[in-house]
Design a protein that fits this description.
By secondary structure, the chain is of the alpha/beta class. 54% of the residues lie in helices and 7% in strands.
């Protein structure tokens, strides 16, 4: 998604209004912490903010057309520094010193601002955070530092206390659906399923919509959950082996399972077809809703969550999945 200021960002209007008011009132903080799940739009918001601060038109939103805006969009503006790191899970003190601490006193090359964006800021080790602390405490007037973090609780309280904190919120499903239909040209049904799966995470929605393998994963998962009740021991073992081969997608499989069971619960309670996610599965949803109890369906949802927790704790994969499929086999009927 190309950035051209705040206007193309989906959702998070309160955060955008806050940043625009700070720009208009000349009250831009020296340090910001933008937190949110991967794919929630942290980088997009930070880049739009930086583009606006550096825009030659000096408004409360970037024009997207001036030389400065084009350089930001192309990631080659000399006064916008994206801090990088070599190790996957660590930002070292040497990287923070080389890219931030030792360069903040160099005046901006163009205009009056210099902006640092640090993605994955929670990956700074303690030494790196302490090295950054003095710069955040006493930065030059022209410097703004933007930290992006999925897990800000992993950062030092001394860093957090000196930042203006902004937390990304989920984007409403309708906004995501409209985006997927209008910009990514998904059919209505597919857009609704992807939006529900993304749970307000626009990056996740965009990635799924661009990935042709999602339809196959969805169909395989729905087949598994619908037929688990009729599987014998050998068939169940075979399905578990197949899931283990695709274990990097097990979180997505759990999400699809949960969406389906919630559809069954919703239909059992309301008989309303229009607000189902899997409207094309109405035949099986209706049968499951009629034959399964509320308690049983809730037990399955709890079992899915328990299986997630077990796998995070490195419990044996086959055992965790077997227990989940036995729950589905026992409690989902129809």
């Amino acid at each position: 998604m190309s950035v051209s200021g705040f206007r193309n960002i989906l959702g998070n209007e309160e955060l955008i209004d806050h940043l625009k008011a700070a720009i208009a009132g000349n009250r831009v903080s020296h340090a910001y912490l933008i937190s949110g799940d991967p794919g929630s739009g942290k980088k997009t918001l930070a880049e739009a903010f930086a583009m606006t601060l550096l825009c030659e038109k000096h408004g409360d939103d970037a024009c997207g057309e001036c030389a400065s805006c084009r350089k930001v969009a192309d990631r080659n503006h000399p006064d916008l520094i994206w801090v990088t790191h070599e190790k996957m899970n660590t930002i070292t003190v040497d990287e923070i010193r080389a890219q931030v601490v030792n360069t903040v006193d160099i005046l901006p090359y163009e205009g009056g601002r210099k902006i640092y964006i640090i993605p994955d800021a929670e990956k700074m080790n303690a030494q790196a955070q302490n090295a950054l602390l003095k710069t955040i405490e006493e930065p030059p007037a022209y410097v703004t530092i933007i930290l992006l973090a999925a897990s800000p609780e992993a950062m030092l309280p001394t860093i957090l206390s000196r930042c203006t904190k902004l937390s990304m919120k989920p984007v409403p499903d309708k906004t995501v659906v409209d985006y997927l239909i209008e910009e990514m040209h998904l059919p209505d049904y597919e857009a609704g399923v992807v939006a529900a799966f993304a749970q307000g995470n626009i990056g996740r929605a965009r990635a799924v919509a661009s990935d042709g393998s999602f339809d196959e994963l969805r169909n395989q998962t729905l087949y598994l959950i619908r037929h688990a009740q009729n599987m014998d021991t050998a068939e169940m073992a075979e399905e578990i082996r197949a899931l283990k081969e695709d274990k990097d997608k097990i979180g997505d499989i759990f999400d699809i399972m949960t969406m389906y069971i919630r559809d069954v619960l919703y239909f059992k309670a309301t008989r309303d077809v229009d607000n189902l996610i899997f409207t094309r599965e109405i035949s099986s949803i209706s049968a499951n809703a009629a034959a399964s109890s509320y308690e049983g369906l809730q037990t399955i949802i709890a079992g899915i969550d328990k299986c997630r927790t077990r796998l995070r704790a490195n419990v044996n994969f086959e055992l965790a999945l077997e227990l989940l499929l036995l729950d589905i086999k026992e409690y989902l009927h129809g």
